[in-house]
Design goal:
Protein name: Heme chaperone HemW
Oligomer: single chain
Strand content: 15-25%
Number of domains: 2
Largest sheet: 9 strands, mixed
Number of helices: 14
Function: Probably acts as a heme chaperone, transferring heme to an unknown acceptor. Binds one molecule of heme per monomer, possibly covalently. Binds 1 [4Fe-4S] cluster. The cluster is coordinated with 3 cysteines and an exchangeable S-adenosyl-L-methionine.
Structural class: alpha/beta
CATH architecture of the largest domain: Alpha-Beta Horseshoe
Family: Belongs to the anaerobic coproporphyrinogen-III oxidase family. HemW subfamily.
InterPro entries: Coproporphyrinogen-III_oxidase, Elp3/MiaA/NifB-like_rSAM, HemN_C, HemW-like, rSAM, rSAM_horseshoe, rSAM_sf
Shape: globular
Subcellular location: Cytoplasm
Number of strands: 21
Length: about 425
């Protein structure tokens, strides 16, 4: 253990033999944990406030915002202004305009927010109107990520969602009236009783709404959720593994045919509209985290805040008393290596060979390649040379990228990663 100031860069040993100053974060995630109800698949740290409480009408939300601002306000300041800010949850659109404005003003006062920053907020259909969203835009919000999940009311009810299909269309209409071009829709495949025909219909309806970005996630039945007490993966009424795989292929085919770039395993974007904030995670770059359950990656180390409000409030109080210094577990070189692979292979860009070699060394690269060779021969892994395009030789080039093929490599990425982890952890 070492005592490490979260926001002050320190000199640490990197996986190469040299010591360097870690990159200083230019991104911040803020967790807003409140929801009208808990969805049956959700294992996020959330607090349910019911259908009638939001903004200043909820003492619980008012209290939380005050503690969140206290955490930001007591954080040491280091580095350039923020280039991305992301309000996630939960349902951040339950915040009032004034509450969101206070949080952003605090961030700007402590860290600065770049003039061209991407400032995103997750919103649920049925939780905002035109004035509400226009107020958000006035505070600086310029990107909206909306949790649609499905376009069939029966599936939405099956998931415990509070909105219905009509709310989706109303919300998108409001987004258009306010003038937000950069908006994203989230969809979930593999839901209970969901058919391929319903999934195709959801994809078609999402495309027809012309969002700049679409996220398509496969349902994961997480322990402790309502779904985990009812369903077993691959067992009816959940789709079989074969149907789930087909749903993934259908999403790739439908969305790329509609002009969306498949830039990450679960994410598609029009040209120029990739999520800049999420790329920070996938590229394993540092990021500040604020709020209940939020994770920070600063100074080469990660830590996560408590997942309940009371424990989080106590944590903030202790944080203030310690001047932003806490004991943080050391992050090992192997952990950094595995995180880099796990995140980087999710991207269509893949793993940059020269950068990987510089960071982890040629021996690690060869060890990685030995793991990937069977999948390369199977067509699940591609190697692209900067000078030759797609590379078919028996040895890796010194530059270029290692990528998973689309869709099969992405589809079986967990299998590939499990092989890598098993070999590299020996």
């Amino acid at each position: 253990m070492q005592f490490h100031p979260e926001f002050k860069a320190s000199i640490v040993a990197t996986p190469s033999t040299e010591s360097t100053i870690p990159e200083i974060p230019r991104s911040a995630y803020l967790h807003i944990p409140f929801c009208r109800r808990r969805c049956f698949y959700c294992d996020f740290p959330v607090s349910v406030v019911g259908d009638r409480k939001q903004g200043e009408d909820s003492g619980t939300i008012v209290e939380y915002v005050n503690w969140l601002i206290a955490e930001i306000d007591s954080s040491p300041v280091w580095g350039p202004p923020l280039s991305t800010v992301f309000f996630g949850g939960g349902t951040p659109s339950l915040l009032s305009v004034s509450q969101l404005s206070r949080i952003l003003a605090t961030l700007d006062r402590r860290f600065g927010i770049a003039a061209d920053a991407e400032i995103s907020i997750e919103m649920d259909p049925g939780t905002f109107d035109r004035d509400h969203l226009a107020g958000y835009c006035h505070t600086g919000i310029n990107r909206v990520s909306m949790g649609v999940q499905a376009f069939q009311d029966e599936l939405l009810a099956q998931c415990g969602r509070s909105h219905r299909t009509s709310d989706i269309f109303t919300a998108v209409e409001v987004i258009g009236e306010v003038g937000i071009e950069n908006f994203s829709l989230d969809l979930i495949s593999g839901l209970p009783q969901q058919t391929l025909e319903q999934w195709q219909d959801s994809l078609n309806q999402a495309v027809a709404l012309n969002p700049a970005h679409i996220s398509s996630y496969d349902l994961i039945v997480e322990p402790g959720t309502a779904f985990s007490r009812t369903y077993q993966p691959g067992v009816s009424p959940l789709p079989t593994d074969e149907i789930s795989a087909q749903m993934y292929r259908v999403a790739v085919e439908t969305l790329t045919a509609a002009g969306y770039e498949h830039y990450e395993v679960s994410n598609y974007a029009r040209s120029g509209y990739q999520c800049r904030h999420n790329r920070v995670y996938w590229e394993n770059r540092p990021c500040y985290g604020f709020g209940m359950g939020a994770a920070s990656y600063v100074g080469g180390q990660r830590f996560t805040r408590p997942r309940t409000r009371r424990e989080y409030y106590a944590w903030v109080q202790e944080w203030q008393g310690n001047g932003g210094v806490f004991p943080i577990p050391e992050t090992s070189e192997d952990e950094v290596l595995l995180e880099t692979l796990m995140l980087g292979l999710r991207l269509a860009d893949g793993i940059d060979i020269a950068r990987f070699t510089q960071q982890f060394g040629g021996d690690r690269l060869q060890q990685l390649w030995q793991c990937l060779l069977p999948y390369y021969r199977q067509g699940w892994v591609n190697v692209h040379s900067l000078s030759e395009g797609r590379y078919f030789g028996p040895n890796l080039p010194s530059s270029g990228a290692i990528r998973l093929s689309d869709p099969e490599g992405f589809l079986f990425s967990n299998t590939i990663l499990a092989t890598i982890f098993e070999a590299l952890e020996k």
